[in-house]
Amino acid sequence: MHATLPLLRESDFPAVSRGRVETLQVNLGYLCNQRCLHCHVNAGPTRQEIMDEETVEVVLDYLKRKEIKTLDLTGGAPEMNPHFKHLVQEARALGVRVIDRCNLTILGEDGYAEIAPFLANYGVEAVASLPCYLGENVDAQRGDGVFEASIDALKLLNSVGYGIEGSGLTLTLVYNPQGASLPPSQQELEAAYKRELHLRFGITFNQLFTITNMPIQRFGSTLISRGEFASYMQLLKEAYSEENLDDVMCRSLISVDWQGYVYDCDFNQMLDLPIMGSDGERSHLNDLIEQNIEGSEIVVMDHCYGCTAGQGSSCGGALEESGVNDESC
C-alpha cells in the first residue's frame, strides 16, 4: 500500500486548538468482516489488533472521572471485540450516550444474531454505513452481496424499533462518495435515501450523515495508484470553508486506539500522529485522566482539508448545509 503521510506533511492548514472533551471515540480493533475500498482504517477479516479487557477498563475509568458525555465506538467492526457488550453496559450504567458505528452486515454473521436486540435494549444509537440506496453502487464499493446483506440488517434494526417514530432508538445512515469527489448536499441526499429505501424496501431511518473520503490509508493509496491524489487534494483545498473550522470534531473529541493510545481524531490515529506528552512520548488514555488538555494544540496536516471542504465533514456528518444539490449516490 502506498504511504500517504509524506504527501500530507507540508501543509498550510490553519492552527486548531481543543475545547472541552465531550466525546471519547474508541477504536475497539481493526478486525472486520468486510474490506471496503474507501476504508481509512484498512480494516479487514485478517486484522488481529483487538482492544483487551484491561484497556476497556481504562476507557470506563476515563468516562467516569472526566464525566464524558458520549462514547463513540468504532473499528473495524466494533461488535467483533469480545468486550463490546461489557463496555456498552457499563457506559450506559454511567449515563453515557453510546454510539455504535455498525457496518450492518455484521448483524447477519454467525454468532452476532443477538447484537441488534442488545443495542436496542441498552438504547445505543446505531450509525450504519450504507454508501448508496442502489445495490450496484454499494457492491462496487464494499463487495458483492453487501447491499443485500445491508438491507436485511436494516430491516432487522427496524424490527427491534430502530428508526421507528416514537421508539427513542436512533438509526443514522452514513454516505461516502464512490470516488474522488465531495459529497452532495446532505439534506437533499437524505430526502432521496428516505424516499428510495421506503419505496423499495419499506425501510425507515432517522437521519443521514455525508462524510468526505479522507486521502489516507486504503483510499489514499488507491488515489495514488490511479494518479488522482494531487487532483483530489486540490479539490479539497479549493473547497475549503473557513466557517467549518470552528466546528471540526477534533475540538471536542479525542480518539483512542486499540492499545489505549490517544489521538486528536480517528484520521490522525490512522496516520500514527498521536497526542504527545510533555516527556516527548505518545500519550496513553491513562496519562490523561489527571490532565486537562483543553486549549492544547491539535496536530494538523493536509488531510484536515477533508473535514473543512464544502459543507464540511465529521463523524457527525456535514457541518453546514451546502454542497451540490444532487440526490444521486
List keywords for this structure.
single chain, 329 residues, alpha/beta, TIM Barrel, 8-stranded mixed sheet
In short:
The protein is 32% helix and 11% strand. The chain has 12 helices and 8 strands.
Written overview of the protein:
The chain is α/β, with parallel strands linked by helices. The protein has one domain: TIM Barrel (Alpha-Beta Barrel), CATH 3.20.20.70. Helices cover 32% and strands 11% of the residues. It is built from twelve helices and eight strands. Strands 6-5-4-3-2-1-7-8 form an eight-stranded mixed beta sheet. Strand 2, helix 3 and strand 3 form a beta-alpha-beta unit. It is globular and about 55 Å long. The mean pLDDT is 91.
